[in-house]
Amino acid sequence: MPPPTRHPVAELRDRFLQRLRESSTSREPRGLYEPISYIMGIGGKRVRPLLALIAARMFGDDEELTAGMPVALAVETFHNFTLLHDDIMDASPLRRGNPTVHEKWDVNTAILSGDLMLIQAYAHLCGAPDKRRTHDLLCTFNRIATGVCEGQQFDVDFELRSHVTIEEYLDMIELKTAVLLGGALEMGALSAGAGREDADHLYAFGRLTGLAFQLHDDLLDTFGDGKQTGKLTGNDIIRNKKTFLYIKTLESLDETQRGELVEWFSHSPEDPAPKVARVTELMRLRDIPRLVAELRDQFQKEAYAHLAAVNGDAAWKDALRQLTEELLSRDN
Amino acid sequence: MPPPTRHPVAELRDRFLQRLRESSTSREPRGLYEPISYIMGIGGKRVRPLLALIAARMFGDDEELTAGMPVALAVETFHNFTLLHDDIMDASPLRRGNPTVHEKWDVNTAILSGDLMLIQAYAHLCGAPDKRRTHDLLCTFNRIATGVCEGQQFDVDFELRSHVTIEEYLDMIELKTAVLLGGALEMGALSAGAGREDADHLYAFGRLTGLAFQLHDDLLDTFGDGKQTGKLTGNDIIRNKKTFLYIKTLESLDETQRGELVEWFSHSPEDPAPKVARVTELMRLRDIPRLVAELRDQFQKEAYAHLAAVNGDAAWKDALRQLTEELLSRDN
């Protein structure tokens, strides 16, 4: 009896991790390369490279992953570069439970290692086997990377602004998180020879799924079951984080209650329980959880319509749908 | 009577500056794009883009600079990105007489704007008209950019090390400054359709000229005429900077005098005059200025041999030689 077949996505993840280990160098100067191996090695779900690899498998005959792997490495390296530099800007001590690079080394090391990671992301694109596609891959990568930087800046700007519209907020999370998910799929498809139309549909699928993820995360943070998510319920409220839920609630409240919500978000009481309870109540009063869940489902429905329009291998389209559903259902 | 013809290199500089002004955007978010316009606008000699443009003009028919200009913008944007991030790491308050970005805005702004500049450098490469050359340009750019980051890290490492060999020091300045000069020429040539051999000769010319520049700068700092250079003579000695001169002197002194030199470089007396006088004397004692000038001239001679081997337009090869001589003779 043959051994049971591994799940194809799990198989891709294993092969990506294998390739990642092989690509890790211990070159000189070590002070530059060690922090890169460190941050690339401390895990994460590897969602972006998986999206790239699945998209590449959808088109043509990329069983060896020669087309998709360079793009997968590029997007994962880029993603980790953004984490490294964002952690400096946010002065975060921990990343995935480990000390951040600027804590374990120092800020200058984190700046320079991050810079080299951005260059390495581009260097991976040079590893794509079909040189005729380099131009398209490079231009796409630039568009995505520019968007991510703009999203980060909008996020910083919004923290300091008293009023942010729901459209502005959605634009920000689209740039900050959704375009890279879309870009991973688009570039994976392009690397394997997909046409522009299919690549665009996959980009749209990734972008809309990214927006759905973000709303799902916001909902879980405030209304999820802490025992299942393993996180403190109401953490965003405690940290006065202006999430989609907060902005949507603010927009729908009358003036008095709007003043009350703004007041709650202007300080951090020692015992946060009454604040969490009252803010949650205000959100429920305006039926916000249902509204947000509906919007999330609407995004995901539109995403699936784009996926359905892709002329790619049906089994890999299913794999992509499965991966998405896993991510949307998981409570962590 | 026709107006007198402008010097062709001055003409290229004007056209580059014109194009740079046109490419400056005032996009949202302004907190991200304004610092970029600021640093790109505060001058500098624009040596690297000129090298790219001259190299492109050497091959084929690039009168409109359509091939060379994207590369010129890419190398200048990259160079300014390195200045922006280096200034954070060195905590420098001024750049070209103006406040640095992290002083005028803040460190986070300087990190993120710098990141976007690195992406913009790559984006300029996408503007090159012949898509078949994108692959070569991208791989070359990655090699150069990686070298520059490695050079910066070696420089940081050497500051903390008690002993650095002359070979290690030369490798460091090659990476930190010379490879980008070579790369600008190599990429300018490739963009205009030059073959690999000509591009390699131009790279070697730029790399060796860069090394010659660096030794020239070191010499001027310590032995130049302050009235002509407009700089404080002996500034490197006052700042305990481990230049080529210092390392070469250290290597050639006997043990007693080596101890004396190390001692001088271990503190910063209030009146630096006796220190500058004695260290300069030690250097002269070992005939270091002559040795360094000879090495500089040797590098430049080898550089010209590579230039002579290039199968490019003779008038533009002359222009390149003139630009080099101007830079090597100028006392600032």
TrEMBL record, chains A, B:
Q: Which domain of life is it from?
A: Bacteria
What Enzyme Commission number(s) apply to this enzyme? 2.5.1.1, 2.5.1.10, 2.5.1.29
What enzyme class is recorded for this protein?
Answer: transferase
Q: Which UniProt keywords apply?
A: Magnesium, Metal-binding, Transferase
Q: Which InterPro entries match?
A: Isoprenoid_synthase_dom_sf (IPR008949), Polyprenyl_synt (IPR000092), Polyprenyl_synt_CS (IPR033749)
The Gene Ontology biological process terms listed for this entry are:
isoprenoid biosynthetic process
The prosthetic group or cofactor this protein requires is:
Mg(2+)
GO molecular function list: (2E,6E)-farnesyl diphosphate synthase activity; dimethylallyltranstransferase activity; geranylgeranyl diphosphate synthase activity; metal ion binding
Similarity comment:
Belongs to the FPP/GGPP synthase family.
Q: Which PANTHER family match?
A: GERANYLGERANYL PYROPHOSPHATE SYNTHASE, SHORT CHAIN ISOPRENYL DIPHOSPHATE SYNTHASE
**Annotated protein name in UniProt:** Geranylgeranyl diphosphate synthase type II
Q: Which organism is it from?
A: Neolewinella aquimaris
